[in-house]
Amino acid sequence: MSALAHRPVSAHRRRAALLRQLRIWSGVVACVLFLLPIAWMVLTSLKLQRDIFTTPPKIFFSPTLSTYVTYLTQHDLPERMLNTLIVAGGAGLISIVVGSMAGYALARVKLRGATTIGVLILLSRGVPPIALAVPMFLVARAMGLLDHHITLILAYCTFLIPYVMWLMRGFFKALPEELEEAAKIDGCTRFGAFIRIIVPISLPGLLSTLIFSIILAWEELLFALVLTNRAASTVPVVISGIAGDTVNGANWGALTAVGTMTVIPVVIFALLVQKWLIQGLADGATKG
Question: What is the pLDDT of residue 226?
Answer without folding.
Answer: 92
